[in-house]
Amino acid sequence: VQLQASGGGLVQAGGSLRLSCAAPGIIFSRTSMRWYRQAPGKQRELVAVITSYGSTNYVDSMKGRFTISRDNAKNTVYLQLNSLQREDTGVYYCNSVDDYTTRSYWGQGTQVTVSS
């Protein structure tokens, strides 16, 4: 199974992007979804989580700026990025974890570049 992330691009500071991650071939309704990012020269870090029930959680530095959501009918998770800063530059990855089997899958990543 390969998750399919998209929506990245080049944006000026203060701008917005909406990332999408399609998850074909999994039982999406019982899957928790996560977004991670990896900045240049840094380790991959968790950005946001949405559980199979729709509960959300965010890293403190991203609260109020980023919004994670899901559409179970489309097997897709989204990450709305607002008020982007240069420090938000990186490759954003989506990840799925099955609530029952704990099987996990990753997307290929989508590049977000924020210019000043």
Task: Give the radius of gyration.
Answer: 13 Å
Q: SSE order, as H and E?
A: EEEEEEEEEEE
Low-confidence stretches: none
Number of helices: 0
Assign a percent range to the helix content.
under 10%
Oligomer type? single chain
- Spatial gap, N to C terminus: 37 Å
How many individual β-strands? 11
Mean pLDDT: 96
Beta-strand content estimate: over 45%
Describe the global form: globular
Q: For the report, how would you describe the main beta sheet?
A: 7 strands, mixed
Structural class: mainly beta
SSE blueprint:
Blueprint: E1 4-6, E2 9-12, E3 17-22, E4 31-38, E5 45-50, E6 56-58, E7 66-71, E8 76-81, E9 90-98, E10 104-106, E11 110-115
Parallel strand pairs: 2-11
Antiparallel strand pairs: 1-3, 3-8, 4-5, 4-9, 5-6, 7-8, 9-10, 9-11
What would your notes on this structure say?
With 116 residues, the chain is mostly beta strands. Helix content is 0%, strand content 52%. The chain is built from no helices and 11 strands. The strands form 2 sheets. Strands 2, 4, 5, 6, 9, 10 and 11 form a 7-stranded mixed β-sheet that branches. It has a 4-stranded antiparallel β-sheet with strand order 1-3-8-7, with no helix packed on it. Strand 4 and strand 5 (45-50) form a beta hairpin. The model has no long low-confidence stretch (mean pLDDT 96).
